[in-house]
Amino acid sequence: MKIKNALFSTYNKSGVVEFAQKLNTLGIQIIATGKTEAILNEHHLQVMTVEDTTHFPEILDGRVKTLHPNIHGGILFKRNNQDHQETLLKHNIKSIDMVIVNLYPFEQTIANAASTLDQAIEQIDIGGPTMIRAAAKNYKDVVILVEAEDFELVWQELQLHQDVSLATRLYLATKAFNIIAHYDHCIANYFNTLTPQNNLPQKIILELDKKQILRYGENPHQDAAVYQIPNPIQNVLANHVQIQGKDLSYNNILDAQAALQCIAEFSNQPTVAVIKHNNPCGVASDESLAIAFQKAQAADPISIFGGIIITNETLDIETAHLLSPLFLEIVMAPAFEPQALVILKSKKNLRVLTYNIDEIHKPLTQIKSIFNGYLVQRSNNQLLDTFNLKSASDYEATPEQLSDLLFALKVVKHVNSNAIVIAENQATTGIGAGQMNRIQSAEIALKQTALKPNIVNPVLASDAFFPFRDVVDLAHEFGIKAIMQPGGSINDSQVIAACKAFKIPLYFTGIRHFKH
Questions:
Q1: CATH code at 147?
Q2: Half-sphere exposure of 455 (CA within 13 A, CB side)
């Protein structure tokens, strides 16, 4: 099918002049909108204006220029339909057989923090998407080009066949519809941000870019990949940088995300977290990163095998030496000392990742898939107001105990429910995770703690209330010195009575931290 007329309407002029010149050599008539026409005229190309085609001037500061039957009739008519052909002849409408359009830079505009709502609105393209959609819909008769990278492909086919193949037309139409979907997605998400922050939007448009194919999914027989939300405002795990090691698997990604969420709680001191099967098995803070690691390792020296290590500070040589003898899946840090990397490179399969510690503090919306849908929630960023924190049992914790309780509370947020965390000296000593009842989680955490020598002042934090006093009774048997939990059970009075009897400080936070 011979291409007679090509319409250019471009914001980004890259490659446009050269392509138009090539089309001109084949005798294809060029039609162009204002600024595109001007730049083509500067290069001595014969160009017909849109006004020549529509017989109507551009109006409303350029908001209306291509929205006209002479444009869309020329794009949308079916070439093999006799009635369509007669309609065009009747109204003296020329066919438009190729459309070259790119859009106003809405996404780039809103990426600038200084941009205003009015500026953003003026970068919402109307005529461009309409022409793209029309041409892509009629791809069997019209070639649609939305990216300069495809100019050469089309030119090669025109040279060889004097036409563009149906397969290429379909490929270009598919790309065009994806461009429009992305453009509308950006606009919709921008307007969603204008609604109150405590409201979830009525509709969520998920647009994901494939970033990386993974070695496998949860199990080796399952294919998997990382898809990233293309939003420069939000940063997700998919934005990690891998320095060395084997390709990441599905489970590696999940565990690394759990590591990031946990380490984001700690900023005041060097901190190390050990993650295994999506749960922290050891977390510790100290003045030295190396000592923090030793404390985290001591928390559960068995489970660290095959785990993930994450730090909140640059990983130094001393800590790298301590890591070197261990079998680990991943080591993550904001940065690495050069010699620390040399040490870690001796373990060629060890995955070494950097991440931007500033980005993981930003609030994110969490989305989880279920059958035929998704669950959506705001991230668990609720903080405890410690200003008026008062014991419900009339016995107050020491400053050291209270500090350890708050440390344990930060960790318990990231342990799968039911969750119990025991801590002393800014380090976990026992973690009970994922049990079907709370007393079993407590037993696991307390028995882990009892195996360690020199534990004299342990405290306990729970992700949810105690339904019965049994956890307090067990905690007393194991020498727990203070307890922190949300409260809110119908049996709170029994729990308080037990703590009073054992002289255990008891703090109700009023904030539940379930993690499923």
A1: 3.40.50.1380
A2: 26
Same domain, 328 and 181: no
Instruction: Return the ∠ at Cα 419 (arms to 417 and 425), rounded to 5°.
Output: 150
pTM reported for the whole predicted model: 0.70
For 276-335, write each residue's pLDDT tens digit. Answer: 999 999 999 999 999 999 999 999 999 999 999 999 999 999 999 999 999 999 999 999
Neighbours of 305 (CB within 10 A): 12
Please check whether residue 481 is in contact with residue 502, taking contact to mean a CB–CB distance below 8 angstroms: no
DSSP 336: B
The β-bridge partners of 374 are 369
Sheet holding 241-244, edge to edge: 241-244, 351-354, 328-333, 307-311, 271-276, 279-285
Residues 6 or more apart from 380 whose CB is under 8 A from it? 413, 513, 515
371 within some domain: no
Distance CA(271)–CA(276), nearest Å, equals 17
| Cβ within 8 Å of residue 264, ≥6 positions away | 357, 360, 361
Express each pLDDT in 326-379 by its tens digit.
999 999 999 999 999 999 999 989 999 999 877 766 656 677 777 777 777 777
Residue range(s) defining the domain that contains residue 174: 5-192
Task: Establish if 390 belongs to a structural domain.
Answer: no
Find the helix or strand (DSSP H, E) in which 423 lies.
strand 420-423
Using the 8-state DSSP alphabet, how is residue 436 labeled? Answer: S
DSSP assignment letter at 256? H
- Number of residues that this document lists for the chain: 516
Residue indicated by tokens 């025991």: 422
Please enumerate in sequence order all residues whose Cβ is within 8 A of that of 325, keeping only pairs 6 or more positions apart, or say none. Answer: none
Q: Which of 22, 84, 137, 476 is catalytic?
A: 137
Neighbour count for residue 288 (Cβ, 10 Å): 13
Q: Which of 4, 22, 277, 500 is catalytic?
A: 277
Answer yes or no: is 178 within a domain.
yes
Q: Is 137 assigned a catalytic role?
A: yes
Please give the angle made by the CA atoms of 212, 311 and 240, to the nearest 5 degrees: 15
Strands (E), 58-141: 98-101
Rg (the chain; Cα; Å) = 31
Domain end (from 192, 219, 247): 192
Cβ atoms within 10 Å, residue 328: 21
Does the active-site annotation cover 44?
A: no
Question: How many domains, in total, are found in the chain?
Answer: 3
Neighbouring residues of 63: CB distance < 8 A, sequence distance ≥ 6: 126
For residues 431 and 437, give the distance between their C-alpha atoms in angstroms, rounded to a whole number: 14
Q: Is residue 122 part of a domain?
A: yes
